[in-house]
Design goal:
By secondary structure, the protein is an alpha/beta fold. Helix content is about 45%, strand content about 20%.
């Protein structure tokens, strides 16, 4: 039974990551994010840093802003965010402040550095460990596909 549940979760993770990958293709940098509650996508966004002339307009920030504005509530406890790249320190901090319960990402910060992408070399796990939240992190979901975006 545990193997079956794990397989279902893996399949769900891959489905939601594919939606993040699709979103990433619409942005001005290949980052996409979706937020899920109860196995349902409730918000989708992509990177708009260049489009908005806003260095904080990362996919994760955009999807969080979109959902919290829609909910009229800054709390995202119980929600999961899926993102093509490991959240940077700014995006991880936004996850901490909103109370997101889980972060699922494809390509790690180290992967992105190896691909010559500008990154702050601090993992989301390091930020979370120094915070007041306990956020579950699942890494490497569709890693190869996410790295191909770059």
């Amino acid at each position: 039974m545990k193997i079956q549940v794990s397989l279902i979760l893996l399949m769900d993770n891959e489905y939601f990551m594919r939606q993040a990958i699709d979103a990433a293709k619409k942005g001005d940098a290949p980052y996409g994010a979706v937020i899920v509650l109860n196995q349902k996508i409730v918000a989708v966004a992509h990177n708009t840093v260049l489009e908005d002339n806003d260095p904080s307009a990362h996919a994760e920030i955009n999807v969080i802003r979109k959902l919290t504005a829609n909910l009229k509530n800054p709390s995202l406890e119980g929600y999961t965010i899926y993102t093509t790249g490991e959240p940077c320190p700014m995006c991880t901090a936004a996850c901490v402040w909103t109370g997101i319960s889980e972060i699922v990402y494809g390509a790690s910060i180290q992967d992105l550095i190896e691909l010559k992408q500008s990154q702050i070399n601090v993992s989301c796990e390091e930020i979370i460990a120094k915070s007041f939240r306990n956020i579950k992190v699942t890494s490497g979901v569709l890693r190869k596909e996410c790295m191909e975006l770059f």
